[in-house]
Amino acid sequence: MLNIGAVPMLSPELLTRYDTAGPRYTSYPTVPVWNASFTDDAYAAALRAAKDTRTPVALYAHFPYCAMKCLYCGCNALTTSRPETVDRYLDDLERELDLVVSHLGQYHSTVQMHWGGGTPNLLSEQQLSRAFTLFADRFHFTSNAELSIEADPRLVSPEQLYALRALGFTRISFGVQDLDANVQEAIGRMQSIELVRDVCTSARDAGFAGLNVDLIYGLPRQTLDTFAKTIEQIIELNPDRIACFGYAHLPAQRPHQRLIDEAELPDGALRAALFQMAVHEFTRAGYVWIGLDHFARASDPLARAQAAGRLHRNFMGYTTMPASHLVGVGMSAISDTAGSFAQNEPALGAWRERIHSGRLPTVRGHTLSDDDQQRQRAILHLMCNLELPYDAVPLSRDQVETRFARFEADGLLRFDHDRLSVTATGRFFIRNMAMELDAYLPSQQAAQRFSRTV
Ligand code: SF4
C-alpha cells in the first residue's frame, strides 16, 4: 500500500460515499445558473456602476489560439498556424476594450492582469507587445500590480521571456501536466523534462519573480509510480507554486476528449491516491498546501496570504489580490463586476459579430441576490480558510449541524463552539462541503455538467 506519511489515507468506503460530480466553485452561483436574460445592457450597467477609478480592478484576457489541440483540453481553445489570424483577434480585442472602457471609464487602477487561453505565448514578440499596449493605454497598473501569463513550454524562447519581462510580466505558469512519455502520448502532448528544465532556467534568468507549474492527476496511463517520478522531477525544478488539478473527463461537452481511451483512465481509488501522493510529496518537500489544489513555497505571497486569512478565490483560481471588480475580455471571458457575473460569447464568430455591431459580447450572466452574496462569501471562506463561522451562513446552527452531520460522522469536520472546522481528512472533500451551501445545485443535473469532486 502507498505510504503517504502524514497525509491521511482515504478509505475506499469514504471515497465511494463522496465520489460525486460537483462544481469547483470558482464562482457562486456557478456558470450553469447564469442565463441569457442578463444581457449586454445589464453588463454595461454593471461596468458603469464600477466606474470609480480609485476602486481597483483585475483584468483577464483570453487568447484562444494554440499550435495544436491537446486531447485532455478543457479550455476554450482554437488552433492556428497563421499569424494574421492572431492579428485579427487582436483587432477585435481592441474593439472590445474600447466598448468596455466606454462604460467603465479609462485609467482604472489595476492591481492584477492575467493572460490565459489557449496559449498566450503563441503570439510573436510584436503581437505580445501590441496586446500589452492595448491594456496599458486604457488602464493604470499600480506599481505592485501582478501581471501573469500562461505559457506552453514548447513555444517558449529565451528572447520571448525577456520580452515578457520587459513588458512587466512578473509571474509565468508553465503547463506541464505530466512528464511521463507514455502519459504524454495518451494525451497528445509531448514535452521532455529537459525542455521543461530549460524553460524554467530561462524564466529565472529573465527575472520572473514567480514561476508556476501546472500538473494534472487522473490522466490516462498515470500510475502511482509514473506520477511519483513526475512529482520528483517537478520538485527538483523548485517552482514557487504548483497547481495540481484533477482531470475533468467530459466528452459530451468536449468532443475531442473522445480520443482519450476511457479504459486507460485511473479509477476513482487510484485518482484519489494520485492526489494524496501529490499532497504528501509536495508538503514533504516544504510546499504549503493551499486551499483545494495549489501548493506554494512558504515564502510565496500565496502561502503568506493563506496564513494571514487573506486568501481569495476567483475564476483564475486562488489569488492574493482581491480586486473589487474583475473585467474579462476575449471570447468566453468572465467578468465579476458590481455584484454581477457576465460571460462573453464563447464562439469566435458570435463574439466577433457582437463586437463589430458595437455591442458588448455578453452571452449570459447573473445578478447576485443578497442570499447569493451571503452564500458566495460562505463558500469562499470555506474553500480558502477551511472553516466556516456559523454566523457566515444563511442557516441556523441547527440547520448547519443537520446539513453537515454526515461529514462530522465521517470525521471530515468538527462542530466547534462558533464555527465548523475542516479536519485534515476533510480537506479532500471541501467541494462536497461547499455543495451543501449551494442553493441551486439540486436543479442543475450536476453529473452531466461538473467534474468529479475528489
Ligand atoms: S495548450 Fe492548453 S489550451 Fe491549448 S489545447 Fe493544449 S491544453 Fe488546451
Could you describe the 3D structure shown?
By secondary structure, this protein is an alpha/beta fold. It has 2 domains: 104 residues, Orthogonal Bundle (Arc Repressor Mutant, subunit A); 297 residues, pyruvate-formate lyase- activating enzyme (Alpha-Beta Horseshoe), CATH 3.80.30. The protein has 16 helices and 21 strands. The strands form 6 sheets. It has a 9-stranded mixed sheet, sandwiched between helices. The protein has a 3-stranded antiparallel sheet with strand order 15-16-17. The chain is globular. Bound molecules: iron/sulfur cluster. Iron/sulfur cluster binds next to loops.
Mean pLDDT: 93
The low-confidence parts are 1-5
Give the proportion of residues in helices: 25-40%
Structural class: alpha/beta
Tally of extended strands?
21
CATH class of the largest domain: Alpha Beta
- CATH fold field value of the largest domain: pyruvate-formate lyase- activating enzyme
The CATH superfamily of the largest domain is known as tm_1862 like domain
CATH architecture of the largest domain: Alpha-Beta Horseshoe
Main sheet: which strands, in order across? Answer: 10-11-9-8-7-6-5-2-14
Structural shape: globular
- Give the number of helices: 16
Largest sheet: 9 strands, mixed
Query: Strand fraction band?
Result: 15-25%
The molecules bound to the chains, other than polymers, are: iron/sulfur cluster
The CA-CA distance between the termini, in Å, is 19 Å
Rg, alpha carbons: 21 Å
